[in-house]
Each structure stands twice: as structure tokens, then as C-alpha cells.
Write a structure and sequence with these properties.
11 strands, mainly beta, 4-stranded antiparallel beta sheet, 124 residues
């Protein structure tokens, strides 16, 4: 049974940091690329960052480049998202998703399994 569980969300002040975790089970984790998506109230879900199956390739959108870092520990079947210099516009539910197909893409419809999401709120 595939399980993807996000954790680490919460309330943080602008300029602060958070680290999200995505723990996976029920499939061969090392065969899957992983991405973090986010969805703000009233907006469509959008991709933020992704990492290839072996961790050798990462990609982030312009809105998070230089502030968000994705990494993975394949021994622990876990992906991390380190978020620094957080802004109010980063407020959203953050979702972890995985896909077995080649490439680090940030299109919602190519990801096969999703977590339930974790809320991140950036506010003073």
C-alpha cells in the first residue's frame, strides 16, 4: 500500500524558515522522482521544486529559487524541503508527490501518488 506523509508545516513569521518532510512507503522509493507542489486558497495547485530519483537533478520555479532547497535520503525513504526567507505569498498547503517516469517535471497530471498535504502559513 502506497503511503506518502508530509509533516513539518506550521505558522512562521516572514523571513523565517521551515523544513518539511515527506516520508514514503509501499513502493520502490529509489525508482521515483519527487516533487513538492503547493496550493494557496482560491488558486490552482502549482509546482515548486522537484528532485530526481537519485538526487542528482533538482529544479525549482523562479518564485522559490535561492530560498527553497529539496533533498532526499533514500536510505530513509524521505524527501525534505528546506524553506528559507519565507514570504506571506508562500502561504499554502504543501503536497509531496511522486512519479516513476523519467524527468523532473512540475506538471500536476504526471504525478502518480500524492500525500495529504501540510499547511504552511507565513504571517506576522
Amino acid at each position: 500500500q502506497v503511503q506518502i506523509v508530509e509533516s513539518g508545516g506550521g505558522l512562521v513569521q516572514p523571513g523565517g524558515s521551515l523544513r518539511l518532510s515527506c516520508a514514503a512507503s509501499g513502493f520502490t522509493f529509489t525508482d521515483y522522482n519527487v516533487a513538492w507542489f503547493r496550493q494557496a486558497p482560491g488558486k490552482e495547485r502549482e509546482g515548486a521544486v522537484c528532485i530526481s530519483s537519485n538526487g542528482g537533478i533538482t529544479y525549482g520555479t523562479d518564485s522559490v529559487k535561492g530560498r527553497f532547497t529539496i533533498s532526499r535520503d533514500n536510505a530513509k525513504n524521505t524527501v525534505y524541503l528546506q524553506m528559507n526567507s519565507l514570504k506571506p505569498e508562500d502561504t499554502a498547503v504543501y503536497y509531496c508527490a511522486v512519479k516513476s517516469t523519467f524527468g523532473c517535471f512540475l506538471r500536476v497530471n504526471v504525478y502518480q501518488y500524492w500525500g495529504q498535504g501540510t499547511q504552511v502559513t507565513v504571517s506576522s
